[in-house]
Predict the 3D structure of the following.
Amino acid sequence: MNAPHIPILRQGKPYQSLDVQTVNQLGTEDPAAEISFACADMIKYDLHKMGEAREALKRFSGNELVEITKKAGELFLHGDLPIGTEGDLQSPDDYVMSLAATSGLPHSLIRFNMTRLGGLFGQIDDIFMGLSRGLSWDVLDKGYGEQGGAPVSFSATTNELAVILPSNSPAVNALWIPAIAMKMPVLLKPGREEPWTPWRIIQAFIEAGAPAEAFSLYPTQHDGSGAIIRRAGRVMLFGDDSTVKQYENDERVEVHGTGYSKFVIGEDAIENWEQYVDSMVESVSANSGRSCICTSTIVVPKYGDEIAHAISKRLAEIKPLAQDNPEAKLSGFANPKFAEWINEAVEDGLVSSGATDITAEYRDGERFVERDGMNYLQPTIVRVDSFDEDLALREFLFPFASVVECPQSEVLEKTGYSLVMTAVTKDVNWINQLFDHPEIERLNIGNVPTNRISWNQPHEGNLFDFLYTRRSFAFAESA
Amino acid sequence: MTADEAKAQLDERVREMMAWHFSDETGCPFWLDWMAEAGWDPREEVKSYDDIIKFPHFQDEWLRDEKNERFVPNAYKGRPFNVFETGGTTGLPKQRVGWDDYKHDYEQFSGQLSDDFFPKGGNWIMVGPTGPRRLRLAVEHLANVRGGSCYHVDLDPRWVKRLIKRKELDQVERYQAHVMAQAVEIIKHRDISCIFTTPRLLASIGERISISDHGIKGCFCGGTSMTPEYVRFLQEEVLENRAQFVPTYGNTLMGLAVSIPQELPGKDYSVTYYAPQPRAVLRIVDADNTEITKDYGEYGRVELTTLTQEFFMPRFLERDEAIRREPHEKYPWDGVGDVRPFGALTKKVIEGVY
């Protein structure tokens, strides 16, 4: 297939811009896609009309949208779907190849994420039930009803859910998919190297019967993203701690920041640490360590050295391989500079005598390696003496974790915020303390990898609560 | 006029201006002193536009550091002058003195406007930087020359730039909304058929009201660079293809370089500007060796030479780059296309803020 032209979608209508940018296949001068870019003012204009997109979705019942969502999932996984402006179709394999060409992700990881995303569509009933705490779709259809015997009514907080998507993680599209069944149009700004996944999901939805008006896609520059963030009624974006801080008082904006996810072993379970190595390896390395739900700190009361060595041995087996090698688990960096910057940050932390790169003993070559024109960072486990070390609580876009020893009684005080915490323990008192701790967003008790999450519970915010607000209401008897 | 005739006209203009600015009777103290220090007489050595490269690049700092009186030609001695300021954000701004140039420039520009879209007798509104800027008087003069009056709504770009530097983007939007509210009220309640504003402000007005529905038929725009896609957006969506969009390129030091609006759709909205020759000349030069003129179709830095009796400014390097374009039958001299901030692809420039 020739490099397709990815147009702007303005409430589902393709718009070919005069501002076209070419995204090349990584490490080559061969074009992978031509992308139409939208100017910021166009987005501002279109935002005024998003009420029409919402009306288009409201013409469908919740149950109809559930069926459409489920069908869209099948089409996303298995269908030949439109791509570009010339009437071409994209098979699932074409999708994998296109995404691999621009993102650096191995085919195996793309297929893994594809399966995860595809599965999410099918869970839409369960997701809505979980996030709304048992609400019936009818309540959204009518605007009011009952829940658990109590009268409830919900009104939308916005006419659109805007999402500023990153280039490095197709899985994050999972966050907006349920919005369609919740009758909320989406306005997506794709990452420069990753228009493929949002485009394919949109096409799957439209093919499944969803109104095209519900989908807007705006590849755009920084000023366009700024316009979306300032103007949209509800916005999801991805960023670091400074971005989180910037929007912490803006209820319109939900920032998906650094996860600081942790794998913790209790004093009652530490003697069996070898039984948890598989989970720790998966937690650190799943999705090439790029997810905020990947473990970045392992906290144990003792055996820190032994655990660091045991995990390092296993992680050292994960090497840069050809992108189409079915065993490939490590992603290259679409932006080669990222790998250099991250490696420098790790090296800076290792200057301290209290931090040791244990993996260096086991892996082939340096952490930073080049292969097939791409930059890779090989998995790294750093043994740190204490939480005072710079690398103790850091998260990077590759399989990286620190291992730190800490008495169980001090864990909550030292660990701070955790998007996910797995605590391997049966100590009821400690479990109660963990459940009571406000800085743990998702808590797994027992030997569960941190990367295994369920979508029927909140993930960095509750999508239903983000899009809808409960109101009081009453009908006069005569009404 | 043919390209050869235009060249001959320009060369003649150059000789006239050398004679004017470097004679004791008519020249200004700044250039007369410069000649004495340089040790050569431009009247002898600069006989055509090609000889202009014998001058060094005009430094706009001179317009800040020198007293304004030193730029007053002796021929204008004793005649009070207008003071016009260029952009600037801090400190003493750069200033240009002037008398009638802005009137000549805008009368010439008026001759280029379509009477269908800029009807004679129609009123104008100017929404943008007024204050000490030449534009404020110039647009009003344009309206008057065409038989109309002009309403004004001010926007202070220096304040906007400060807000952007401080990343107070919410404040930028609030200030813009404040300006817009004033403009919209006037457009709604007065008979206005023409507007001058900047691209961003035009889009912002169009977000609030249908500009065409309120009787505006023509929009003369300038102030910042525009991509072809943005020009298309303004013409097709903001003006709904019911009013004519006339992009211009200019500043206090030059006057107005004009485009050919009716040809824009056929050229994918790539705008080419033609300087008001022979009063001013634009040349696209190699940024690393500015004596070299770039080939047609190539990007280079914009160099401006202004040749009026009021103001001589040789080889001023604008903060823009553009594509050198072929002469047009309507304007048989080089054009400059797809103007953008100099170094736009390699550095972040605060531009197009209003």
